[in-house]
Design brief:
Elements: H1 10-22, E1 27-28, E2 41-47, H2 55-60, E3 71-75, H3 86-89, H4 92-106, E4 115-121, H5 127-138, H6 141-144, H7 165-169, H8 186-198
Antiparallel strand pairs: 1-4, 2-3, 2-4
Helix pairs in contact: 1-5
């Protein structure tokens, strides 16, 4: 017996949220300062450049397909406030994307012009669900393997942590240089990233 469709089922709500994001046209991350907006929500960042470990990501995003984000994330209102009109009370989503833009600019082997992003302003209660479903669906390499892209400067008094895999592979954030060394090399992370993407991105589905 077929179960009746329930639009308020949590899985259907989540699918609605992710589809709403994925229907939006990606915009250049470089152009973000010209698109200031309010609200909290979820976002996806796409890469189209020549960095060899991400060749499959670039291939998936060619010709307007935008099939594989390199990173997805969320931005919640300050203090985790609930039940508010996020479109007018916070700039969390814009600020988070601006932080990511700064990280890309700082990296010595990445070009800001190779990045695009989508974002969706939604009520805070649905933000964790939307982010979780996006990560499960795409398993972006910067979420699942080359972690640390979303890290913040820990501050002068909290530099006891280890340098992230992202900062090893993409050096340039000056505050990361003050963290403890990691037992990985750019070469080993590159090989891991290549294998990670081979297992998750099918290039044939993006061929015309």
């Amino acid at each position: 017996m077929t179960e009746p469709y329930n639009p308020l089922d949590i899985s259907n709500i989540g699918e609605s949220i992710t589809n709403a994001l994925l229907q939006l046209e990606p915009v250049p991350l470089d152009d973000l300062p010209n698109r200031r907006f309010g609200g909290a929500g979820i976002y996806a960042i796409y890469y189209t450049g020549p960095f060899a470990p991400y060749a499959l990501v670039t291939q998936a995003n060619r010709n307007g397909k935008w099939g594989q984000p390199i990173y997805v994330g969320k931005a919640v209102p300050s203090g985790g406030r609930r039940g508010i009109s996020v479109g007018t009370t916070t700039q969390a989503l814009f600020d988070r994307l601006r932080q990511h833009r700064t990280s890309v600019i700082a990296a010595t082997n990445l070009d800001l012009g190779d990045f695009h992003c989508r974002w969706l302003v939604i009520e805070p209660i649905w933000i964790p669900l939307g982010e979780s479903l996006l990560i499960n669906r795409f398993q972006p390499v910067w979420n699942g393997l080359v972690d640390g892209f979303g890290n913040h400067d820990p501050g002068a008094g909290r530099l006891k942590g280890m340098r992230s895999a992202w900062d090893v592979l993409h050096p340039g954030r000056t505050w990361a240089d003050n963290l403890a060394s990691r037992n990985q090399t750019p070469q080993s992370i590159t090989q891991d990233a290549l294998e990670y993407l081979r297992q998750r991105v099918d290039p044939t589905q993006f061929l015309r």
